[in-house]
Amino acid sequence: MKHTKVIEVLQSDKLLQPVLVKGWVRSFRNDRFIAVNDGSTINNIQCVLEDNTIDAAIQSRINVGAAVAIEGTLIESQGKGQRVEIQVSNVEIEGDADPEELKLTILSPKRHTLEKLREQAHLRVRTNTFGAIMRVRSKLSFAIHEYFQKNDFYYVHTPVITKSDAEGAGEAFKVTNLDLNNIPKNENGEVDYKEDFFGGETNLTVSGQLEAETYAMGLGQVYTFGPTFRAENSNTSRHLAEFWMVEPEVAFCDLDGNMDLAEDFIKYVIQFVLDNCQDDLEFLENRLVQEDKQKPQAERAEMLLRDKLKFILENNFKRVSYTEAIDILKNSKPNKKKKFKFPIDGWGADLQSEHERFLVEKHFKCPVILFDYPADIKSFYMRLNEDGKTVRAMDILFPGIGEIVGGSQREERLDVLKEKMAALNIPEEELWWYLDTRRFGTCTHSGFGLGFERLVLFVTGMGNIRDVIPYPRTPLNAEF
Amino acid sequence: MKHTKVIEVLQSDKLLQPVLVKGWVRSFRNDRFIAVNDGSTINNIQCVLEDNTIDAAIQSRINVGAAVAIEGTLIESQGKGQRVEIQVSNVEIEGDADPEELKLTILSPKRHTLEKLREQAHLRVRTNTFGAIMRVRSKLSFAIHEYFQKNDFYYVHTPVITKSDAEGAGEAFKVTNLDLNNIPKNENGEVDYKEDFFGGETNLTVSGQLEAETYAMGLGQVYTFGPTFRAENSNTSRHLAEFWMVEPEVAFCDLDGNMDLAEDFIKYVIQFVLDNCQDDLEFLENRLVQEDKQKPQAERAEMLLRDKLKFILENNFKRVSYTEAIDILKNSKPNKKKKFKFPIDGWGADLQSEHERFLVEKHFKCPVILFDYPADIKSFYMRLNEDGKTVRAMDILFPGIGEIVGGSQREERLDVLKEKMAALNIPEEELWWYLDTRRFGTCTHSGFGLGFERLVLFVTGMGNIRDVIPYPRTPLNAEF
Q: Where are the coiled-coil regions (chains A, B) (predicted)?
């Protein structure tokens, strides 16, 4: 007999028919009720054991965490909380879980802190919270692909190992095959990268944008979705050394089109999880409600998780120029009362997290798209405006998360781009191929990068980015 | 007026209505016919210019490679080869392409070798061949996600940077943030990895399998689809230092289930591209036909590209045990006539490419799944059979490609796994978390890895793996 996934059993109407499920014991109450979960859904199937149905030796091995195969008959449930349950006829133990050993792990049935769960990241996916997060993460990933594919974008795998560090600004990890105990040196006493695997210095990518641009010039509309790396020593709840980024790039698209795309895209994927992750979102929402009960009133969330997601769908993102934003901030109460750590006294300053939060959470109370930033605080490839001092950049700021998207219309004019690179000492030889896109059939084009984990944070309501990726990489931590 | 994608224009029935397209000039014949491509499809839209419609200065800039915006009226085409065309009313040049400069690139309208195209990988996607390959690659990627998501698998992002090198066998790239010109040393004179970003030695992953297994033990059915790395010095047409791999992992699934899954999966994604990439496949098929005309009869393909793909769909993969395969090979003509470079004289030998090709292309003439390999030539995590000498491994061999899938039922028994690791000197401390999956609720489970680029090779009919990934990384090459 083939086994059936729990998600299917729970929706099945094949009452009084035999059924086989395989999964892990989540609880075993009163020597009678076995809750089995197989990961296909957050919901367990209740398996009801009558007296003497199974061997006592087997019964004694039905422990939390054990892998079991349970045969029985599907019946309407007598109890509350589930529509159907299984009247057990046979139990096989596929894999034991010794309660004494289990006690030492986060699988033991008691409350563990998220920090503790992180130390056993290989087991935490077996908990309700992390099962829910990772299912939502998977569905969100798929929604991203579906959105772009439906809209005739092509998926491009930009390289992870790269020689160019134009964007890295020293924050790129090095990749090497050299023996670090015995680094070959050239006649000048410097590392002889000619001896290395790629015959040159190589890094882990900090962004696939430049390569994606070359592909947009051929395929028109492309997107990347892949891992990205920063050797940035920031131990915060919002930074990872390895994270996944989504980077669409569109030919013949200006900054307005770019903002339209980003907003439409984000709304699509949020709608997708609302439609496809109802049980997991409900669980995560309740989790937050419980968590909030421990907090003082003022720190509690203003909206339930799913209401917050619906709010995003139902409201236009507020589009505000950097210059307007500076005016608002300069005249804001916290600025006048000197409550900002970085006071705003004029045009040109980079916005800090406190400013972004004020704009999004206090002033506009909705997602905000800031655009037309000062050229000096943005990257070399962003298109210079006619004013000569701002660039066609845009950042999307989300409540509780801060920057979730950063994008721009790209500088398509070869001469302007070269001037900018020269001013920043970016050697043309390094980016000859990038410059070629401006040499042959250059055109207006735009794109953005979305930090995938920040989106997962927002959608799941989790507070630490380490809890929305299976195996987080942070300073001093690359376990598993 | 908003512009319309060429793929939509070509299917449009809005005859006699105004239309705006934006794209790149592929050809300009008789001062009259502009073929414009925007990457959305391999097909161009023909734009017909009447005399004196546009300024001579503009007309002189309509060169191959230039980016143009063309307005006009959609009309039924008078010529052969297209249903509709655009009667031009206005042309704007978005970006020039100087014919003299273009001559120096692969965009110049003449035949270039694939080797030459590789040197300008940033431009090759603008050619018909690479546009087609990369659109097919994108669709194949999506088909992979769709298959697993439809079948209730969850997508897992396993880490790229990892401390464990259990599988790497020295073929993993090192990742570091240390200054290679000034490596910190500890008191023993060895590299002091404590000073490194992660506080220890780290590598680029060679497989996400072990981490995927931990996730299958929670979510039941998972898959990875991400970049994988090998610092292997093989300059062949089938190896890349950076490639994408698909790795499903399924709890409560044995080797038979694993073979069923792999076959069903491959057939699904091939059917998907047959359904969704008709124009690109037709182009690639014709390309091969042309290529074959240069070859002697004996070396020509036996089947057209799409017939080869359909053949995969219509036939069961032949399942053959390693032991049977050895018998067939031992008694084969090439073996008896000493035509194999590595003669087969007994059980236990690893199969070489020549043997695999004989089995697939000469003997069975269809995809073959070889299973139950000798334990000695396979990985430590594969389940030992009752015979004590073979393991529940399987490889899928494809005509022209060789191994496209490698998988196994995993050793779920803690004691057997530990013995195997000890025999191979794999320290338990390094894989404590992996062993935990066998300690708590272990179960029968299986999975496989599919080298994505090999699948793209097969589907596109290309001969060199460097031509099916945007920016190939190989020994001494990490350009762009």
A: 274-301
How far is Cα B408 from Cα B215, in angstroms, rounded to an integer? 17
pLDDT at B470 over 90: yes
Strands A318-321 and A368-374 come out as parallel
In A, residues 119-148, which contact B (CB 8 Å cutoff)? Answer: 120-123, 125-126, 130-131, 134-135, 137-139, 141-142, 145
Whether B141 maps to a domain, the answer reads: yes
B340 interface with A at CB cutoff 8 Å: no
**Residues of chain B contacting residue A471, judged by C-beta atoms under 8 Å apart:** 158-159, 211
Instruction: Say if the Cβ atoms of A102 and B440 lie within 8 Å.
Output: yes
Cβ of B125 and A199 within 8 Å? Answer: no
pLDDT for residue B167 is more than 80: no
**Does A289 lie in the same domain as A222?**
yes
Interface membership of A162 toward B (CB under 8 Å): yes
Are residues B223 and B94 part of one domain?
Answer: no
CATH number at residue B267: 3.30.930.10
Residues B148 and B64 reside in one and the same domain? no
Mean pLDDT across B398-407:
92
Identify from B443, B445, B477 which residue to disrupt to test chain A contact, counting A C-beta atoms within 10 A and taking the largest count. B443
Same domain for B278 and B421: yes
Kindly state whether residues B66 and B141 are assigned to the same domain: no
Q: Are residues B163 and B210 in the same domain?
A: yes
Closest B-chain CA to A173: B177
Count of structural domains, chain A: 2
Domain range holding B435? 128-171+206-317+366-467
Rounded mean pLDDT of A361-383? 96
Q: How far is A340 from chain B (nearest CA, A)?
A: 32
- Give A374's contacts (C-beta < 8 A, 6+ positions apart): A322, A347, A348, A389, A390, A391
Closest CA to B205 of B242, B166, B160: B160
- Record the tokens describing residue A107, joined without a space: 């699988």
Could A478 and B440 be called an inter-chain contact, meaning their C-beta atoms sit closer than 8 Å?
no
Do A98 and A132 fall into the same domain?
no
Structural tokens at position A208: 């696939």
Mean per-residue pLDDT of chain A: 96
Q: Compute the distance between CA of residue A112 and CA of residue A108 in angstroms, rounded to an integer.
A: 9
A209 touches chain B (CB under 8 A): no
Mutate which: A26, A64, A122, vs B, most B CBs within 10 A: A122
Q: Which residues 6+ apart lie within 8 Å of A395 measured at CB?
A: A369, A370, A371, A373, A403, A405, A406, A407
CATH of the domain at A28: 2.40.50.140
Q: CB burial class (10 A; 0-12, 13-18, 19+) of residue A307?
A: exposed
Mean pLDDT throughout B156-170?
82
Amino acid at A104: L
Q: Please name the residues in contact with A475: beta carbons below 8 A apart, sequence gap of 6 or more.
A: A233, A234, A235, A241, B197, B198, B199
Same domain, A132 and A235: yes
